[in-house]
Amino acid sequence: MGSPTLVTARAPGRVVLIGDHTDYTGGLVCPMAIDRWTTASGVRGGSGLSLASADEPEPLDVGLPVTRPDAITPTWGRYAAGVAAELGVVEGLQGTVSTTIPIGAGLSSSAALELAVALALGFDGTPRELARLCQRAENTATGLPSGILDQLTSACGVDGHALVMDCTTLDIEPLPVPDHAVVQVLFVTQRRLVGSPYADRVAQCAAAEAVIGPLRTADIGTLNAIEDAMLSRRARHVITENRRVRDFAGALRAGDLNDAGALMLEGHESLRVDYETSTAAMDEAVRSLSALRGVYGARMTGGGFGGCVVALTEPGTQIPNAWVVRPTAGASRA
Ligand code: GLA
């Protein structure tokens, strides 16, 4: 018997600067990985996956190989079990997970858990492959038809940079965050995407695409062909949001933070009115933040129905209860 293999891996959370609800139609997104992480560490070996969580009362204890991750309790363990199932691992891990990402706040604590566990279990492949595997794990383990945004950001983060990502090709352009730009996050309310109208939005996009073709390339003029007014609004959000990601990237490249902030506010309106993923509390937070001196713009961020608001500000801008997040590198094994 050799000595036990000790492993530690960590994966960052993410915040979306602009480009929400575009990933599952293969569109454009502009997130950044943030300096908050989930860490998985332990001893490899044995025939089970046993993880204690610093943030949850019940540990995960499951035999390998995992066949039904969606039936695992406690439910937080489904993300880890889903990863083990996708990897098909038979060599286990006894360890712990802990996180500095607020859980259920729309900052991708789930994706970070998936990536950290995958790396701790010995995943061997490219960051894009890691993201794909973890997305599949989440889809299977939770039934949520989520896109690739969270996992791809956590896998491919670049220190000091936001990312412009194409969710069809998985091409990524790292975009330096200018020195005079500060990103701040304000927690508004807890939320769960499983059981929320998220899956309805995915289905509504598919219904709109059945009429006008891929939203990724659709022209705004084609919206007239969609008879159902609600579906037409959903499609309008996606088409305009893809355009906003391009414009936002241009504004950041040019260092024009006023433009970037205005696009964030426009994006929030689109999520509020056309996509209906905001809440009254998030709308209020965006309204009050955008009225503050030093704030270029603000918007809800992530899947919505609760969660956080993100603001782009001048250095030194104090927002009560918000915290500054810095763009950071992607997931890694120690
Ligand atoms: C959640 C999903 C992502 C993405 C966002 C909205 O975070 O996991 O795939 O759809 O919502 O942009």
TrEMBL record:
The keyword Kinase applies. Residues 250-318 form the GHMP kinase C-terminal domain. PROSITE patterns: GHMP_KINASES_ATP. It holds the Pfam family GHMP_kinases_N. Gene3D superfamilies: 3.30.230.10, GHMP kinase, C-terminal domain. One of its GO terms (molecular function) is ATP binding. GO terms for cellular component: cytosol. SUPFAM superfamilies: GHMP Kinase, C-terminal domain (SSF55060), Ribosomal protein S5 domain 2-like (SSF54211). Keywords: ATP-binding, Kinase, Nucleotide-binding, Transferase. InterPro entries: Galactokinase, GalKase_N, GHMP_kinase_C_dom, GHMP_kinase_C_sf, GHMP_kinase_N_dom, GHMP_knse_ATP-bd_CS, Mevalonate/galactokinase, Ribosomal_Su5_D2-typ_SF. Residues 83-157 form the GHMP kinase N-terminal domain. The keyword Magnesium does not apply. Residues 4-40 form the Galactokinase N-terminal domain. One of its GO terms (biological process) is galactose metabolic process. Belongs to the GHMP kinase family. GalK subfamily. This is Unannotated protein.
